[in-house]
Amino acid sequence: MIITFTPNPSLDRTVTLNAPLAPGGVHRIEIDQIQPGGKGINVAFGLQRAGLDTLAIFQAAQGDPLLDLLAEVGLPVRTSPIRGRVRTNITLLDSNATTKINEPGEKLSVVEIAGVEAALLNAVGPGDTVMLSGSLAPGFEVREYAKLVRKIRHVGAWVGVDTSEAPLLALARELREDEAAAPNFLKPNAEELGQLTGRDGRDLEAAAGRGDFAGLREAALDLQKRGVSDVLVTLGGAGAMLATAEGVWFCQAPDAPVISTVGAGDCSTAGYLIGRAQGMAGPERLALAVAYGSAAVSLPGTTTPHPNQVEPFLRLARSQPVA
């Protein structure tokens, strides 16, 4: 079983404008699309479409529109009740750029937080894979992920984390002090890798753009020394780098028509977890993760690709060792 946890789920509204966005101007909408959202939910969609046994866990009030959308597509979920509504995130697309406007989410009570934590921990058993993804709804402690990682690893499950900003910085502090807080898997981008390891993420990404992966490699290996076995560093349209105990590889992203980048990182995570579940070696897992991300950007909104949509990109994805 692969379980995803989304502590700040959302309704993702994608609006395509008929002209470039101009502050203060009047715009007309060409396409208006609402999809289930939240990083863990996006990952679960990818897993489900690949035919894997998955369960998405999050909090939502009874009758929330998010639950109706998920029921329509048949995604297995387990929810914990709350009083407030799920937040709405808005993505504005025009011919020049993508603009994102994210709500913070409503503040959860102590009881509501305990309820969704229990829903997660009661679902996890030895040998399970657990992916903790996204921002934390207001009310959670900033160190929530480190706390959950300790409990999940104690059960004997394999656990990954994909987050940013304050929760990521809190996890970085915990990693420096206690290896028990280390997840098995982390999926930072270059900037986040810098935050985790005390480096300048912009310098790491700029060097990688020149074909110099030494800084990224060194930073990823630093995380391994702290107990993180698999580090997948996503580099946007350039591709991704993977560091495991077996080696370090880079995979360039195949060319793809960019329609929407929203959720592409979550699709890369799904691709990596699919490869792991299928017993692929590190280079193959990396190539599949990159192919899933490339397929995702060629689709509208936060649409998660089916395996047949990933296959053309996978044929072009080649992982190369990084010395």
UniProtKB/TrEMBL annotation:
Query: What NCBIfam families does the record tag this protein with?
Result: 1-PFK (TIGR03168)
PANTHER family under this entry? Answer: 1-PHOSPHOFRUCTOKINASE, 1-PHOSPHOFRUCTOKINASE-RELATED
Q: Which family does it belong to?
A: Belongs to the carbohydrate kinase PfkB family.
The Carbohydrate kinase PfkB domain covers which part of the protein?
26-307
Is the keyword Transferase in the record? Answer: yes
Which domain of life does this protein belong to?
A: Bacteria
Mind telling me which CDD domains this protein's record contains?
FruK_PfkB_like
Species lineage, top-down?
Bacteria, Bacillati, Actinomycetota, Actinomycetes, Actinomycetales
PROSITE patterns documented for this protein? PFKB_KINASES_2
Q: Which Gene3D superfamilies match?
A: 3.40.1190.20
Q: Which keywords fit this entry according to its UniProt record? A: ATP-binding, Kinase, Nucleotide-binding, Transferase
Note the InterPro entries from the entry: Carboh/pur_kinase_PfkB_CS, PfkB_dom, Ribo/fructo_kinase, Ribokinase-like, Tagatose/fructose_Pkinase
Q: Where is the signal peptide?
A: none
Keyword Nucleotide-binding on entry: yes
Q: What is this protein called?
A: Phosphofructokinase
GO cellular-component terms in the record?
A: cytosol
The molecular function GO annotations come to: ATP binding; phosphofructokinase activity
Pfam family, any one: PfkB
